[in-house]
Amino acid sequence: MFTNTKAFSGFSVNDIQKAKTFYHDVLGLNVSEKPEMMILTLHIAGGTDIIIYPKPNHTPATFTILNFPVENIDKAVDELTAKGVKFLHYDGELKTDEKGIFRGGGPLIAWFADPAGNILSVLQQS
């Protein structure tokens, strides 16, 4: 039924303008806006689009909603930190280092949140 359908993903935020600033100015993504619908579209490399919509009773996702592959995770974390991004730190099964990078097996990965509290990550490509 959906074999030839181009699916897309979407998630909610509590402030569409803060989201637009964060995703465009901080992360550097190509963002378009449909003001009449109050929807943002993130245009991700490879032709994938992701929609962001406002939700007054928004609850942040408790899981990673977007993963951004990078060549050098330390460089990416440093650049994002310089732009004001605060990385999440975990001290349990997934223990992160002082930068917020998990180096305990599997891909090197660091998690951070958007202004609405949704969890995103950068992960180093092997």
From TrEMBL:
Residues 5-125 form the VOC domain. This is VOC family protein. It comes from Chitinophaga oryziterrae. SUPFAM superfamilies: Glyoxalase/Bleomycin resistance protein/Dihydroxybiphenyl dioxygenase. InterPro entries: Glyas_Bleomycin-R_OHBP_Dase, Glyas_Fos-R_dOase_dom, VOC_core.
